[in-house]
Amino acid sequence: MKILLTGGSGYLGSILTRKLLKKGFRVRILDNFLFGKHPLTDVIKNKDLELIDGDVRDLAAVSKSLKDVDVVIHLASIVGTQSSELDPKTSIEINYLATRNIADLCKLYKIKQFVFASTCSVYGAQPNNFISENSEVNPLDSYGQSKFQSERAILQAYDYPTILRLGTLFGASYRMRFDLAINLFLAQALNKEDITVFGGNQWRPFLHVDDAAEAFSFVVENNMEGIYNTIWKNITIEQMAREVKKLIPTGIKISKDIVDKRDYRVTGAKLEKFGYKATKDIKYAANEFKTKISEDVKNYKQEKYSNYKSFFNSTDIQRKVYTQGPIFKK
Ligand SMILES: NC(=O)c1ccc[n+]([C@@H]2O[C@H](COP(=O)([O-])OP(=O)(O)OC[C@H]3O[C@@H](n4cnc5c(N)ncnc54)[C@H](O)[C@@H]3O)[C@@H](O)[C@H]2O)c1
Predict the structure, then answer these.
(1) Which of 83, 87, 236, 315 is deepest in the core (most CB within 10 A)?
(2) pLDDT for res 132
């Protein structure tokens, strides 16, 4: 079976690529390699892996990528609120319009399964109940809105899509990100710095990046359709900082300036009923990071580890992303 994976060189995609290859799938990646090809270095020569360097906004590149494909897993996106808000028009083009086009083409080319990476951010702020897939959505920012609009467009365009609403990811990957809460906390603690918490009472569902990859593989192997919250567990940001501190003793600095108002607790029971279970916890991630930080990551504050800083500062990335030219915000 051949899978088209968009965004296969990213934080999640680079793990998912290896998982799918290991399980015997043939994988074609469509990615414009904003963060380079290095996350795929040791698998690049795998005979079952093919790379297409292209943009998901380019219909010709998408059509070419869909040739002889059975399943599409669509991850490519401008990921994160801050990065999406740098140039909202471009984010709508990539996160929403391109997704709608890909779903249309999947229907046209009779692709057997279309799997989309959505986010629990679509729930916005509603911390009092455990939110299921049938609950109201209330995205608070343009990133969450673009993902929810995409879900609706996919549901219209493609008969039975699979949509995974992922919790906030954490854990080691071949393309590291330290702009994700737990990853940042672990990096701060390992560098003997205070953990910085903004607000702290906000609930979040978290999920290890390897468990997220496993969920995509699970819904493909079981040919599942539908919308699924995909999480490990819900915990407040402050409590998470305390859990990190228990594993790697350090201080915690709490700032009451809440920039991010998202606050939600979700249930992942629907997917778990089918037998999926996220198992990797922060102790697992802390152990990964102890080697990763000391061996690979010299300075976790470098811009390449943050999506927003990369989009903001790198003219190479800006040239690829912004069709009207770099936005040179420096
Ligand atoms: N990381 C999280 O916490 C999280 C949480 C919920 C949902 N998600 C979703 O999971 C998916 C993967 O996220 P990630 O953390 O791996 O992000 P990432 O930024 O590390 O990876 C995104 C990948 O998409 C590629 N890409 C971006 N724009 C493209 C374009 N126009 N054409 C082709 N390729 C393009 C990039 O080069 C990169 O390889 C995204 O759809 C994201 O919204 C992530």
Answers:
(1) 83
(2) 96
Query: Which residue blocks in the chain are alpha helix, DSSP H?
Result: 13-22, 59-65, 81-86, 88-91, 98-108, 142-157, 181-190, 209-221, 237-247, 269-272, 282-295, 307-313, 315-321
pLDDT of 330? 54
Residue 294: predicted pLDDT: 78
Question: What residues line ligand 1, using a CB cutoff of 6 Å?
Answer: 6-7, 9-13, 31-35, 55-57, 75-77, 79, 94, 117, 119, 166, 168-169, 175, 177, 180, 307
Residue 326 within any structural domain of the chain: no
The whole-number pLDDT of residue 303 equals: 95
Locate 315 and state its tokens: 């003219």
Low-confidence ranges of the chain (pLDDT < 70): 258, 328-330
What pLDDT sits at residue 324? 78
CATH code of 286's domain: 3.40.50.720
State the sign of the Cα–Cα–Cα–Cα dihedral 217, 222, 223, 225.
negative
- pLDDT value at position 243? 97
Report the residue among 4, 6, 9, 11 best suited for mutation to probe ligand 1: largest number of ligand atoms under 8 A from its CB.
Answer: 11
pLDDT for 328 equals: 66
Residue whose CA lies nearest to ligand 1 atom number 43 = 79
